[in-house]
Specification:
The structure holds 2 protein chains of 2 kinds. Chain A is mainly alpha-helical. Chain A has one domain: MetI-like fold, CATH 1.10.3720. In chain A, helix 9 packs antiparallel against helix 12 and helix 14 runs antiparallel to helix 15. Helix content of chain B is 74%, strand content 0%. Classes of the chains: A mainly alpha, B mainly alpha. Chains A and B meet through helix 5, helix 6, helix 7, helix 8 and helix 9 of A and helix 1 and helix 2 of B.
């Protein structure tokens, strides 16, 4: 046995076995199982095959379409806010104009919210976006002479609260990704550009942006998934899964409502499968468009 | 030459101010939580979190309760420590 395990043929498979087993047990099996469940009507102790009925019902379900719309809106706005701004902040932090302790304090202050639990962050923001004129956000807009707003009751204002929470939690993390990307760009490129007489803007566009492409693609990929799979933030902000007129309902929120609250596991699995297909389709499209799958020689 | 130097200084000051403002805005909720710990829970729900301390209504009840009332703090703290140990052990 020992001889077999130590042989050149078997050893690589032995090394990757823990990953393969974990992947199969915790990822592949649940994925296949939820695919099967999405074609079933599931009652306690009874599973009936119903074909694509769950999917047919899903696409004519008005609430599901609202959830999809909310998730897409959230994803698009988070992409707009969580990619360019952290990239600019990373460039500011990486610049030689600001040095020393101040830079470190700024980095730390931006990263601290990422260490805060979503539950805590959601609760804080719910209280900050309260209805009374004494709540922080109403006090803030009061400085500009505006009337108090019932933030979490309106679709647009509730969405502002969700986006503020997302920015607060993720700006620091994304800034760190971009900062690590910036620090891996060789200084020689900038020196060569300076000798050629390039301006700061030209260096940014011709060197920084292309060199940050792998980081950009990574942040884009996780942001697309994060945006479409958002649930905890909305759940905590609205103190449950029942926002007024479903303004905070997301795809995962709808999955939770059907699967856990209404105990319709088959239908909830269909929601999960649709979410997986949407996320895969968008991410594969953007990865192909950004040339991630191309071989080094083809680029 | 002097104009270029003063322009650079202006950009530097602008950047420092911008970073200070963003950093403070990010840290504001933490200050709001800290201030909130001196108020009663139902007051927080009714009036929301804000940055000012109302000294006439501020008290240390929440802090006293945290470390004395049924010892919940130590229960969850030990749970978190156990989970942390498991997480640190995991890669080994």
């Amino acid at each position: 046995m020992k001889k077999f395990l130590y042989s050149r043929k078997a050893a690589p498979y032995v090394f990757i076995l823990p990953f393969v087993v974990t992947f199969a047990v915790f990822w592949l099996v649940p994925l296949i199982k939820s695919g099967i469940m999405s074609t079933q009507k599931i009652l306690p102790g009874q599973e009936t095959f119903i074909g694509i009925d769950n999917f047919t019902r899903l696409f004519s379900d008005r609430i599901f379409l609202i959830a999809v719309g909310n998730s897409f809106k959230y994803m698009i706005f988070t992409l707009i806010l969580l990619i360019p701004i952290p990239m600019i902040l990373a460039c500011l932090v990486n610049s030689k104009l600001v040095r020393g302790r101040f830079k470190n304090i700024f980095k730390a202050s931006l990263f601290i919210p990422a260490l805060t639990s979503v539950v805590v962050a959601g609760t804080i923001f719910r209280l900050m976006f309260g209805e009374m004129d004494t709540a922080l956000m109403n006090q803030f807009i009061g400085l500009f002479g505006m009337e108090p707003v019932k933030w979490l009751k309106g679709a647009a204002t509730g969405f502002v609260a969700l986006l503020t929470l997302a920015c607060w939690r993720w700006w620091g993390v994304n800034m760190m990704y971009f900062l690590s990307g910036l620090q891996s760009i060789p200084e020689d490129y900038y020196e060569a550009a300076s000798i050629d007489g390039a301006t700061t803007w030209q260096k940014f566009i011709k060197i920084t942006v292309p060199q940050l492409k792998p980081t950009f693609v990574y942040v884009l990929t996780i942001s697309i998934y994060g945006g479409l799979a958002m649930f905890n933030e909305s759940y905590m902000l609205y103190q449950g899964n029942n926002s007024p007129n479903n303004i905070g309902l997301t795809i995962v929120g709808y999955l939770y409502r059907q699967g856990i609250e209404k105990n319709d596991m088959g239908y909830a699995s269909a929601v999960g499968v649709v979410l997986l297909v949407i996320v895969l389709a968008i991410n594969i499209t953007q990865l192909v468009a950004t040339g991630t799958f191309k071989k080094e020689d083809d680029k | 030459m002097k104009t270029k130097k003063s322009g650079k200084l202006a950009v530097k000051i602008l950047m420092i101010v911008l970073m200070a403002v963003i950093g403070l805005m990010i840290l504001l909720p933490f200050w709001a939580i800290f201030v909130g710990t001196f108020q009663e829970g139902n007051m927080l729900v009714r009036y929301g979190l804000n940055l000012s301390i109302n000294l006439s209504e501020a008290n240390l009840d929440n802090w006293v309760m945290l470390f004395t009332d049924s010892g919940d703090y130590f229960t969850w703290f030990s749970t978190v420590c156990s989970l942390l140990c498991c997480r640190l052990w995991e890669p080994c």
